[in-house]
Design a protein that fits this description.
The protein is α+β, with helices and mostly antiparallel strands. The chain has helices at about 5-70, 90-100, 190-195, and strands spanning about 105-115, 115-130, 140-150, 155, 165-170, 175-180, 195-200. The chain has one domain (about 5-200). The longest helix is centred in the first third of the chain and has 67 residues, at about 5-70.
Length: about 200
């Protein structure tokens, strides 16, 4: 074999090994970033679910309060304003949804966005980013937070009298009437007609 050919092969082998090492490092680095992105996405989904669960619990409280107050006084219209809930069960609802998403609530509180009440939930994943070439990821948990609000969907005339039959016009073209003197819980529309629950922008 010619001496020149052997020399070329001898020079090429270290370059090949070096290039292979670089490509493997890039591949592992990309995998590490993909792991981190997946953990962040999972955390955000868990935070969204937790905040929405808290707001939905408050919406249920509003509907129950509305139904229980009609015919018992003149304050039942206030329940439709969307801010008379106590939120006592909201954190429990948030924690349950976070757990369903393999996460834990590490921060929770009431919030207000554009005048609408709601809840802010901060969560941390129970799982870690995982082993990677980046030191520390094997013990790093992802965190995220979200805020969800409860927004009334129905309007009534400002001069409406709570002791008389009242007709409501709601978003989406829905309408219903409540007569305090002739009321049954079945007269109330679905909670989603009365109040919308959504994540705050």
């Amino acid at each position: 074999m010619p001496q020149a050919l052997q020399s070329d092969r001898g020079q090429t082998l270290p370059i090949y090994i070096w290039m292979t090492g670089i490509l493997l490092f890039v591949a592992f680095a990309f995998f590490a970033f993909a792991q981190a992105a997946s953990a962040r996405n999972g955390a955000q989904s868990a935070a969204d679910a937790a905040a929405l669960a808290a707001a939905q619990d408050a919406r249920g409280e509003l509907v129950d309060g509305l139904g229980g107050s009609i015919g018992e006084g003149d304050e039942w219209l206030d329940w439709l304003g969307g801010d008379k809930f106590t939120g006592d069960g909201a954190r429990g609802a948030a924690e349950a949804l976070a757990a369903d998403n393999d996460s834990s609530v590490i921060g929770f509180g009431s919030a207000e966005v554009n005048g609408y009440p709601g809840f802010r939930a901060k969560i941390e994943t129970n799982y870690t980013v995982g082993d990677s070439i980046i030191p520390g990821t094997e013990s790093q948990h992802a965190q995220a937070e979200a805020t969800a609000i409860v927004k009334p969907r129905c309007d009534l005339a400002p001069a409406a009298a709570p002791e008389k039959a009242v007709e409501f016009e709601c978003d989406g073209g829905d309408s219903f009437e409540i007569d305090p003197d002739d009321f049954d819980l079945a007269d109330l529309p679905d909670a989603s007609v009365l109040f919308s629950v959504h994540l705050a922008d």
